[in-house]
Amino acid sequence: MDSLTQIALGACVAAVAVPPGQRRKAAGVGAFLGTLPDLDVFLNYGGPVENFTMHRGFSHSLFVLAGVGTLLWLVLRRWWKPVREYPRPWLAAILLALLTHPLLDAHTAYGTQLFWPIPSPPVAWATLFIIDPLYTLPLLVGLIAVLIRPTSKIAGRFLATGLAVSSLYLGWSWIAQGVVAHHARQSLAAHGLSAPRMFITPSPLNTLLWRVVARTENGYFEGFDSLVADDGPIRFTFHPSDDPAMAGASADVPAASRLQWFADGFVSADVLDGTLIITDLRMGAGDNYVFRHAVARYGNPHWEPIPAQRLPMRSRSGLLSATWERIWSDSL
To answer: Rounded to an integer, what distance in angstroms lies between the CA atom of residue 261 and that of residue 69?
Structure first.
């Protein structure tokens, strides 16, 4: 999620864990810890594919953050009076601020390596867009109340209510995704796909319009489902993918196999002028995707790695207005 949301979440869960007299201090600590894991964006892992696939890696591991949080608590308990006075509430505050960060990130499409160093694909439940005001605003209201009147009962109520409302919205996003998954399975059956591998994610800034990607052996189907406007089967469009080229490159081009692993197979491949381009299908739509990488050139008889290059995304002007219109109309 975006930094503002992570700051607000970290501050709120930390503040709710400690006595009222220490809420403001806990909110400050929680705000810092809530954004701490994302400092890995300043690390250079050696190239665009490495930077893309190693972000949300070790710094978002539940194992690592639990250890870091416990160590930090031990240090603060020795040197900082508030933690010495209320050690258990502060342990909860620190761990909640750190661990809710990757768990919330796992609700987005990018994916989060929750169990690093276990080499399982990143977790990407994809029930929330990376920025969702309806999730963030209740947290901000609770945080502002704590900053203004930290010890008051009304601040405690606003804080608890903000966390409850944002959590309920998160629960709604799971329900909405489940409804869309049901619609998608029914609609894809008409295309002869009885048990498709699907990736379902909301469109920008909302949980009413959802995008569905269904991977096949030679490409993917893409469709949109508005929970407000659509009535009937989801209209899917098929997009081909040069899967034989991608399979051939996987053995000799580490970047190709890494990208497939990172996206759990939800990628497509194109060969343009002898260059293999791999597209992450989880973020973007149509022919416009956020993460497209040129990773290899065809030799004879094998694919040969090249210095990976992230290709620019096309203009996104009009995206939000188009999304808003599509939420309310199934004719677009």
So the answer is: 29
How many degrees, rounded to 5, is the angle at CA 248 between CA 247 and CA 249?
Answer: 90
CA–CA separation, 187 and 93 (whole Å): 45
Separation of alpha carbons 257 and 250, rounded Å = 5
Contact 183, 196 (CB under 8 A): no
As a dihedral over the C-alpha atoms of residue 204, residue 207, residue 210, residue 215, rounded to 10 degrees, the angle is 90
Each residue's pLDDT tens digit, 166-224: 999 999 999 999 999 999 999 999 888 888 899 999 999 999 999 999 999 999 999 99
Q: How many C-beta atoms surround the C-beta of residue 301 within 10 A?
A: 6
Distance, in Å, from the CA atom of 183 to the CA atom of 226, rounded to the nearest integer, reads 11
Which backbone phi and psi does 121 adopt, to 5 degrees? -60, 150
Residues 6+ apart with CB under 8 A from 57: 40, 113, 116
Q: Which two tokens stand for residue 295?
A: 């990773």
Q: Which two tokens stand for residue 261?
A: 């692993």
Amino acid at 63: F
Q: What share of the chain is helix, strand, coil (3-state, %, to 5)?
A: 50, 20, 30
Q: Is residue 31 within a helix (H) or strand (E), and if so which, with residue range?
A: helix 23-35
Please enumerate in sequence order all residues whose Cβ is within 8 A of that of 66, keeping only pairs 6 or more positions apart, or say none: 95, 98, 99
pTM of this prediction?
Answer: 0.94
